[in-house]
Design brief:
About 50% of the residues lie in helices and about 15% in strands. The chain has helices at about 1-15, 25-30, 40-45, 45-60, 65-80, 120-125, 185-205, 230, 235-240, 265-280, 305-325, 365-385, 390-395, 420-430, 485-510, 515-530, 545-555, 560-565, 570-580, 585-630, 640-665, 675-700, 710-715; strands spanning about 85-90, 100, 105, 105-110, 115, 125, 145-150, 155-160, 165-175, 215-225, 285-290, 295-300, 305, 330, 345-355, 465-470, 475. The protein is globular, with a radius of gyration of 28 Å. The two termini are about 15 Å apart. The structure holds adenosine-5'-diphosphate and magnesium ion.
Length: about 725
């Protein structure tokens, strides 16, 4: 009996969980205890060596190779004190997950003696046998291998396991010809592009020389938890991360009693365990709560510099996945593990700030700050309109297609929610009206041309893919399982581009001797806003009316599927954009597009074959054996006859659908990955859908004794 298994597992998790709680007074000491911070390094290096390392960190100068040995020694000593026996370059290939290849510190020194060593050379560069990472044609497998190189701007850390620990060195991954084979290199390049773009703009607003800018990012991670027993009895979850079958449970999220409800004990224990590990890794996790769907939860850290935030986001996913197992649970990161139930996203809260901690998207309290805010906010509006296609493409995946455009996730149409107050300010600026707004409590600007800005834009909208939330923008279309690196790269890049263009226009206006900074910014904001305000939409993004208005009246893009979106990736416009800011060259961008097609094809291909396999070997046989059982009963009863007829009818339908799915699975659609991907979308997905429809109907009529799969009802309501 399936319910029994899970209940007994729920009882046993206490025994399985071997962690002891950290006393609350020690929690702050735990923070970053497994991170090699700059303070740690400083304490372990001579002053000149540390200064030289600092020059590398702050100005990107290459590390003196003689110092590399000293730094490596300090790292090894620290890591061994933490119990590490191995080290690895930790990098982010184009699969979207992380990769590691461990090497031991141990080296034989002859005559049965071994020493523990780690050289500067090993720290700076490594050569994983990386020939089977996807490279989108950038590096044919027979060519020289790619190599990994230390990224000193993200600190090294320790990953622990039951029998020891490993020193992880955040790294980039590139080909011998210097092309980026990973997600970190373009992210670092885009951070630099943003810094370069913002600096001249800020100096117009009087910022001091040498101010450095970086984007900041806080990602809210949604996920599901289900009992491990159920997971292993669902080949679809094991193979594809989502359920390919399953009738909607009688009780879905309609009751809304789960959202923000009390967190079950078992789940809370899991969360606390994961958080303690994340604290040790220096990851500032802050928020945890139940999400909308039953079995769905969220974790969110405090924002950080976006390079570190991207590394930390990967670690958050890794720790959640591995910790769940200790509690007899499986953490599902898929965007849509259960059809008809709320999906999971990863809201990326994005802003940009100076090294002194000033947030450029915070309206602030002085007229001067507000003027600067309006300038940067206008740049974001322009960027999102100019590059709707890129924003859609950077979150495109087979799994996110089930979420975007469905009724509880942002639509596939990119638009901006500004909130009524801020929209009102822009509208008044655009119509040439300054002065005080209608609402009380606004800040006086004391300026004749610029209206005042509310301290906190109060209203909220959950249906927008891109929302202003008081002092940052929240990009909500990002998928829960996806690496945030490419979406942040795109945000940094498109906003750098808009700022560069607007700065040039502002400089031109300031060339006119009559113009003041106030009047020039007001004029620029007015022109730009008027041109781009079609991208602003404060209404219900789920509504049918919006789809019609967006496409037909506003001319916004509605790129419904991954394949519609990724074909824009290497358009002439986007190619020029990526090249102009040195984020990706033509080959690098083309490679990414190629890999996206390939991953899309493979994902749906595996789903198609798994659907066929389960329908053929589990679901159809269940119907048949149930029929056999019914057949044993002498057909006197109307009930027996009625049920048998219904099962026969649906089973026959399933059989027909299954045959056509098999044909589509076998057809593959061509030799080119591009054609295969289209075949998957246009033929395999619809055929899978038909099979599922029949199977889900069977689930409702076949005896539960015969049904081979844990149902939605069982999986979603486990405590
Ligand atoms: P929500 O209501 O969407 O949960 P929160 O106020 O909890 O919003 O914040 C969500 C995330 O936004 C957090 O990770 C937070 O650290 C992040 N955030 C706040 N300020 C900034 C900023 N300036 N830049 C980037 N992220 C930020
Ligand atoms: Mg949010």
């Amino acid at each position: 009996n399936q319910d029994f298994d899970v209940n007994s597992a729920a009882r046993n998790w206490r025994v399985d969980a071997s962690v002891s709680a950290t006393p609350s007074e020690l929690v702050n000491q735990l923070f970053a205890s497994d991170v090699l911070t700059l303070d740690q390094l400083k304490a372990r290096l001579s002053k000149p060596d540390y200064r030289s390392l600092q020059a590398t960190l702050e100005r990107g100068e290459t590390l003196d190779s003689s110092i590399a040995d000293t730094v490596a020694l300090a790292m090894k000593t620290w890591a061994m004190e933490k119990g590490a026996t191995h080290y690895t370059h930790w990098f982010q290939p184009l699969t979207g997950s992380t990769a590691e290849k461990h090497d031991s510190f141990l080296n034989p020194a002859g005559d049965g003696v071994a020493i523990m060593s780690f050289s500067g050379k090993e720290l700076i560069q490594a050569e994983p046998d990386a020939s089977s990472f996807p490279s989108g044609g950038l590096r044919a497998t027979f060519e020289a291998r790619g190599y990994t190189a230390w990224d000193p701007s993200s600190p090294a850390f320790i990953i622990r396991h039951a029998n020891g620990a490993t020193l992880c060195i955040p790294s980039v991954f590139l080909s011998w010809t210097g092309e980026a084979l990973d997600l970190k290199i373009p992210l670092l390049r885009s951070i630099e592009a943003l810094n370069k773009a913002v600096t001249p703009a800020l100096s117009l607003f009087g910022a001091s020389e040498g101010t450095r800018i970086s984007s900041t990012l806080g990602a809210e991670q949604e996920y599901f938890l289900i009992a491990e027993e159920y997971y292993y009895r669902r080949p679809d979850l094991v193979m594809t991360g989502r359920t390919l079958f399953g009738a909607k449970p009688p009780r879905g999220q309609e009751l809304e009693d789960h959202y923000f409800g009390a967190i079950p004990d078992r789940v809370l224990s899991f969360m606390t365990d994961a958080e303690m590990q994340l604290y040790a890794l220096g990851i500032p996790v802050k928020t945890r709560h139940n999400e909308v769907a039953p079995g769905q939860f969220e974790i969110a850290p405090i924002f950080e510099n976006s390079n570190i935030a991207a590394d930390h986001q990967q670690l958050i996913m890794q720790v959640l996945r591995s910790t769940a197992r200790k509690y007899g649970l499986v953490c599902l990161m898929h965007e849509k593990p259960f059809a008809g139930v709320n999906g999971s996203g990863k809201h990326c809260n994005w802003s940009m700030g100076t090294d002194a901690g000033e947030n450029l998207l915070d309206p602030g309290e002085t007229p001067h700050r507000n003027m600067q805010f309006l300038f940067f906010c206008t740049a974001v509006i322009k960027a999102v309109d100019d590059h709707q296609d890129l924003l859609r493409a950077c979150v495109a995946s087979a799994s996110n297609d089930h979420r975007l455009g469905a009724n509880e996730a942002p639509p596939a149409i990119i638009s901006i929610f500004l909130g009524s107050e801020l929209t009102d300010i822009f509208d008044r600026l655009a119509s040439g009206k300054g002065g005080r707004g209608p609402e009380a409590g606004l800040l006086g600007l004391g300026s004749s041309v610029l209206p005042e800005i509310p301290v906190h834009a109060g209203d909220r909208n959950r249906t927008s893919p891109f929302a202003f939330t008081g002092n940052k923008f929240e990009f909500r279309a990002v998928g829960s399982s996806q690496s945030i690196s490419f979406p942040i790269t795109v945000l940094n890049l498109i906003i750098a581009d808009a700022i560069t263009q607007l700065t040039a226009q502002l400089q031109e206006k300031l060339g006119d001797s009559e113009a003041t900074l106030d009047s020039a910014v007001a004029e620029l904001v007015k022109q730009t806003y008027t041109k781009y305000k079609r991208i602003i939409f404060n209404g219900d993004g789920y509504s049918e009316a919006w789809h019609v208005e967006a496409e037909q009246q506003r001319g916004l893009l509605n790129l419904r599927t991954t394949l519609d979106a990724i074909k824009h990736l290497n358009s002439e416009k986007n190619l020029r954009l990526f090249e102009q800011y040195n984020v990706l060259n033509e080959r690098e961008l083309g490679a990414r597009q190629e890999i996206m097609y390939d991953i899309y094809f493979k994902t749906v291909n595996i789903e198609g074959e798994t659907t066929e396999y389960m329908a053929q070997t589990q679901i159809l046989p269940a119907a048949i054996s149930y029929l056999a059982e019914l057949g044993d009963v002498e057909i006197k009863s109307k009930a027996v006859k009625g049920v048998a007829e219904e099962v026969v009818e649906i089973a026959d339908e399933l059989y027909v659908c299954l045959r056509s799915l098999r044909e589509q699975n076998e057809a593959l659609g061509g030799d080119e990955v591009h054609d295969k991907a289209h075949h998957m979308r246009d033929h395999v997905l619809p055929a899978m859908h038909e099979v599922r429809r029949a199977a889900d109907r069977l689930e409702k009529v076949v005896s539960s004794k015969h049904w081979p799969l844990p149902t939605y009802r069982q999986m979603l309501f486990v405590k």
